[in-house]
Each structure stands twice: as C-alpha cells, then as structure tokens.
Amino acid sequence: MIALGLMSGTSMDGIDGALVDTDGEKAVERGPSFFVPYDDAFRAKLTAALETAKRIRTREERPGELAALEREITLRHADAVAQFLDGLPARWRDVSVVGFHGQTVLHRPAEGVTVQLGEGALLSERVGLPVVWDMRAADMEAGGQGAPLVSAYHAALARSLFPDRLPAVIVNIGGISNISFVPAKGEPIAFDTGPGNALIDQWVARSGLAYDADGAVAAKGRVAEAAQDAYLAKPFFSQPGPKSLDRLDFTLAEAEGLGLEDGARTLAAVSAGAILRAVEHLPEAPKLWVICGGGRKNPHIVGDLRAGASVPVIVAEEVGLDGDATEAEAWGYLAVRSLRGLPLTYPGTTGCREAVTGGVHSVPKGKSEAA
Ligand SMILES: Nc1ncnc2c1ncn2[C@@H]1O[C@H](COP(=O)(O)OP(=O)(O)OP(=O)(O)O)[C@@H](O)[C@H]1O
Ligand SMILES: CC(=O)N[C@H]1[C@@H]2OC[C@@H](O2)[C@@H](O)[C@@H]1O[C@H](C)C(=O)O
C-alpha cells in the first residue's frame, strides 16, 4: 500500500512529507518526499500556542486561538499534499492512505494528556484520501507515554538495511531527541533522550537566526562545562525509559549569561551528551549509532557523539536513508499498521501495558476505508 506520512515536529520548522510503499511489516520501499517550511509569522503563532496550550486540562479543549490554529495547520497540510501529489511520477500516484501527525502543543504523559493540533476528518475531505491521525492517544490510554512512536519503523529499517550490525540505535535529533534500540530479534526499546535542536534554535533566535546552519555559530564558541554539567545533572537523564518530553520541559535557563557562540556550542554538547547518556538505560551496548533528523546536520552534535561513543556513529545517508524524511516516512508506515490493526507501540517503547495499535480513521464522504 502506498502511504503518505506527514510530520510537523517539535522544531516547528515546517511540514515534512514522504511516501512509502509498505505492508506495515517488513516490506518498505521509500518514495519521494517534500518539505514545506513555515514562515516566521506562522512559527511565532505556533510558539505562542505552546503557552496557550498550558491551559488545556482535557485533550479535546481548544482554548483561545487554538481552534482557529488547528484549522490553519490542517489547511496548510492539505495545500502541501495537493501540491506534492500533483507532481508525482506515475509509480507513486496511487496513494491509499495519509498518516497525519499534526502539531504537538502539549505533552504531559504523567497526566495522560497529549495534544496534536490537526483535524484528520477535514484533511481527508480536502485531499480526497483516507487519513489516519491522532496516533498517540490510544497508547496513552493503554498506560503508555504516547511517544516515541517511530520505533516500529526504525526496527523495520534497521533489520532490512543492516541486519549484521544489530543491536543498533537509531537516533532522531529533532526539536527533542529520541532513540530506538533495535535488537536482532524481538521488540525495540525506545525513549526520548533530551533536548535536540529546540534549545539551539531558541538560543540563536535571539540573534535573528532560525537555526545554527551547519553549526557555524557554534564553530566560533567553546563548551561552557559548568552549564553543560548543569543540564546533564538533571534527574531526567538518570531515569530509565520509558520516558518522553514536552517541548517546554527543558529551557535556556542553564545557558543564560553565555555569549551567543559559546551558548550555541554548549547546547550542541548538551544535545550529544543527552543522547550518550541513554546507553546506561539500554540492555546491552549497541554496535552502531545511526543519526536521523535535522540535528545530524550540526557537525558539533555529531562530532561530540563520535567522540563519546565507542562504536561507529553514522548519519542516515550512510545506510541509504534520507535523514530529513525518516520521521515522515514513519507516519506513513504507522498509518498502514493502524489500518491493519498492528501494534504501533510496545511496553518497551512507551510503557504501554501491552502492545497496542492506535489512530483515528477518517474517510472522505462517499468513499470506503482503504485496506
Ligand atoms: N543545516 C543545518 N545545520 C544545523 N542544524 C540544522 C540544519 N538543518 C536543520 N537543522 C536543525 O534541524 C531542525 C529540524 O529538524 P527536524 O526536521 O528533524 O525536526 P522536527 O521535524 O521538529 O522533528 P521531531 O518531531 O523529531 O522533533 C531545525 O530546527 C534545525 O535546528
Ligand atoms: C509528543 C510528541 O510530539 N513527541 C515527539 C517529540 O519530537 C521528538 C520526540 O519528542 C518524540 O518522542 C516525538 O516524536 C517522535 C518522532 C516519535 O513519536 O517517534
């Protein structure tokens, strides 16, 4: 089945979309992908929404501007999809389902609340395709963290692309970072590892930059060890998985007072250090680290990972993947798993009581469900 995954992650940089042709199990052929960046004004709206969302007590609530914003997010996705589908080669045109993540504005696993803004039914009507959405909620209802979800896909990729190098860890360095530990057999283990790019983005935003492109700002700075230690001493890092983070759980507080360049360098070191600390919570040492997500383009994060790991650390492209598209591909893969009633999460990935499927299915009026 050809599935289109849509991810708008915690970096709030835009919409990633990617096609996969998959059975939701072992078979995965990766297809074309796209990225539509958010403009600065819209990114500012999303940032403000994180504050408004703090008022949410039950996940259906949409206080203040959130209802209108949810519609706008959905319509931006619909436009991006329409444009993408228009230019596709014949091989990929027959899309059966869309997996829609939406924009997380609140994630409080301890309270059992996670909110992704996005109206799957509206998207389905607009693009004329079945949509699977709200994929985190069922996991939380089953006692899970509601994140990370990408691990089932990471496991399928690792087992097909580098079966001889398992156990391996696939790392996603988005706004927040998360890892999947993939053993040769059995279910993956996963958890959020700490801040990825979000703090770096916030830090350089003070100087008018959207992000530290290729680590150019950090290249002129030095790691401030006291600040780095203050971050890495936080109890989150000693806690075993399953665990997951809200975008606002880590702040710039520990970096305050540093200069622009030292701050950018220190926060890159914190991102790497946070990921390296994950090893203490894994059942055995991995043989390989594979890095996906925008953070793999920050040479300081990758360099610090290489310096701290005793095994090879490679980027997604070195195993034939597109590290910008992996998470979007995962949402397509998970949509197919949802249609087939297969688990999205496992006790070892989110802490759910038992392996659980999830997702809400919306079909355009007059059409029957894809399957
Ligand atoms: N050339 C680059 N150099 C340094 N950092 C980069 C570069 N390109 C992108 N990034 C960083 O990657 C971020 C985007 O990463 P990504 O798209 O993986 O995040 P995301 O979609 O929010 O993911 P998640 O849902 O996993 O948090 C940007 O905000 C930026 O910080
Ligand atoms: C609640 C939420 O949106 N969490 C995201 C976020 O971004 C990275 C990290 O925190 C991760 O656990 C999760 O996304 C990934 C892609 C996932 O669910 O697998």
Radius of gyration: 19 Å
Fourth-level CATH superfamily of the largest domain: ATPase, nucleotide binding domain
Oligomer: single chain
Helix content: 25-40%
- Which spans have pLDDT < 50 for at least 5 consecutive residues? none
- Second rung of CATH, namely the architecture of the largest domain: 2-Layer Sandwich
Question: Main beta sheet, described?
Answer: 7 strands, mixed
Count of folded domains: 2
- Report the span from N to C terminus: 8 Å
Percent strand equals 15-25%
GO molecular function: kinase activity
Pathway: Amino-sugar metabolism; 1,6-anhydro-N-acetylmuramate degradation; Cell wall biogenesis; peptidoglycan recycling
Protein name: Anhydro-N-acetylmuramic acid kinase
EC number: 2.7.1.170
Would you give an account of this structure?
With 371 residues, the protein is of the alpha/beta class. It has two domains: 2-140, Nucleotidyltransferase, domain 5 (2-Layer Sandwich), CATH 3.30.420; 151-319, Nucleotidyltransferase, domain 5. It is 32% helix and 21% strand. The chain is built from eleven helices and twelve strands. The protein has helices spanning 40-52, 66-86, 120-127, 137-141, 151-161, 198-205, 225-232, 260-276, 299-308, 326-339, 347-350, and strands spanning 2-8, 14-22, 28-37, 95-108, 113-117, 131-133, 168-173, 176-182, 189-195, 288-292, 313-315, 360-362. The strands form two sheets. Strands 1, 2, 3, 4, 5, 6 and 12 form a seven-stranded mixed beta sheet that branches. A five-stranded mixed beta sheet has the order 9-8-7-10-11. A hairpin with a 5-residue loop joins strand 2 and strand 3. 52% of the residues are buried. The model has no long low-confidence stretch (mean pLDDT 97). Keywords: ATP-binding, Carbohydrate metabolism, Kinase, Nucleotide-binding, Transferase. GO terms for molecular function: kinase activity. It is an enzyme of class 2 (transferase). It catalyses: 1,6-anhydro-N-acetyl-beta-muramate + ATP + H2O = N-acetyl-D-muramate 6-phosphate + ADP + H(+).
